[in-house]
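Practice problem 4.
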């Protein structure tokens, strides 16, 4: 396979991320069949092939591709949890986790996160379930699968459903088997900023065939093979051109993850001597290196590094800040303090990371961080 390459370069700035692309010619070669058949959406051959290939890669039993990760979350929540009730979740996440819940008619109940791994704390989630919560929506933040098995055990013990926001987890593996066999369902984002992408895209992954069948109908307005609709759905279809880029990208993904890992290793080595920078622990056996988060000592210094690097053309991101519980649409009662999540949101900064990031730019980023903190 020829070496992959992006067609664009930004000379003076270092973006936070850049989508990985295969050589353009490979993508072009996939288009004539679409033009000839006229089959560009509604579950064409590329979408079916992509679902099969993703299932093999992760591995997972059932994969249903949809238009983006937010729709994947909404369909998974609706198919697994109905559309009513209190759901225990984390405020340390991207807005879509919380807005998807609210859009589907659920009421979020936030519990704090684990200080080391940033995922929903199992003990606090157990307390938050109370008698009335119907399910759990944890997030594998930055692709960290920590706590996933414990949270599934909790859900099973208390007879509640569990859906994972696995937007960051494509390509993550653990020693204990695939994380995509866990829980009732997981929702993946295949957005261009992710380590594996279809430009825009998402997928519901589930060990349960009946849930897979239900979300497949839901993504196509709710149509049954007979043409009847028993349960109204939505249009959440992934198109053939999106699936085609996914098929190519999957062939390069291991190469891209190795390149990301090399950059992450260099960051770790160069940051190790800096006492005021903490690099979170990675708990997966095979990480996807989707982001490179660091913790600064406090919000003042985090914001100073964010601004200074920005002035030097280095894009970083305060991800996730603010907590989703602090958005002004949230009821006041939910905007209470989650001490660990608040602390992490105030200290976190994601540094640039993508597979083609030049190693000299990694060194420059670390130099700028060091000089700003000096
Ligand atoms: C944790 C989390 N959940 C959900 C989403 C939504 O995915 P998408 O952008 O594909 O809709 C994202 C996107 O970055 C995310 O980070």
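Answer key:
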């Amino acid at each position: 396979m020829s070496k992959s390459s992006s067609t664009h370069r930004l000379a003076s700035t270092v973006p936070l991320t850049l989508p990985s692309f295969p050589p353009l010619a490979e993508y072009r070669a996939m288009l004539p069949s679409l033009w000839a058949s006229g089959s560009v959406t509604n579950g064409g051959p590329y979408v079916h092939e992509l679902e099969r290939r993703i299932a093999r890669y992760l591995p997972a039993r059932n994969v249903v591709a949809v238009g983006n990760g937010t729709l994947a979350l909404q369909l998974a929540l609706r198919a697994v949890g109905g559309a009513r009730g209190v759901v225990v979740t984390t405020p340390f996440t991207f807005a879509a986790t919380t807005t998807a819940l609210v859009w589907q008619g659920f009421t979020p109940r936030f519990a704090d996160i684990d200080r080391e791994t940033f995922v929903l704390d199992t003990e606090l989630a157990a307390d938050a379930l109370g008698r009335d919560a119907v399910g759990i929506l944890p997030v594998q933040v930055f692709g960290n699968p920590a706590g996933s098995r414990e949270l599934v055990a909790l859900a099973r013990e208390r007879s509640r459903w569990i859906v994972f926001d696995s937007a960051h987890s494509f390509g993550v593996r653990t020693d204990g088997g695939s994380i995509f066999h866990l829980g009732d369902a997981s929702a993946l984002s295949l957005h261009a900023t992710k380590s594996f992408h279809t430009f825009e895209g998402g997928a519901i992954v589930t060990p349960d065939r009946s849930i897979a069948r239900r979300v497949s109908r839901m993504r196509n307005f709710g149509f049954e093979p007979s043409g009847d609709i028993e349960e109204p759905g939505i249009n959440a279809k992934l198109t053939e051109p999106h699936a085609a880029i996914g098929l190519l990208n999957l062939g390069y993904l291991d190469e891209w993850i190795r390149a990301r890992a090399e950059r992450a290793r260099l960051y770790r080595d160069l940051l190790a001597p800096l006492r005021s920078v903490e690099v979170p622990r990675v708990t997966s056996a095979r990480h996807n290196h989707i982001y490179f988060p660091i913790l600064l000592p406090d919000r003042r210094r985090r914001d100073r590094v964010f601004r200074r690097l920005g002035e030097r053309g280095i894009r970083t991101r305060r991800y996730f800040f603010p907590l989703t519980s602090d958005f002004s649409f949230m009821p006041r009662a939910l905007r209470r303090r989650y001490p660990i999540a608040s602390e992490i949101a105030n200290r976190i900064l994601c540094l640039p990371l993508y597979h083609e990031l030049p190693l000299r730019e990694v060194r420059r980023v670390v130099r700028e961080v060091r000089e700003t903190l000096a």
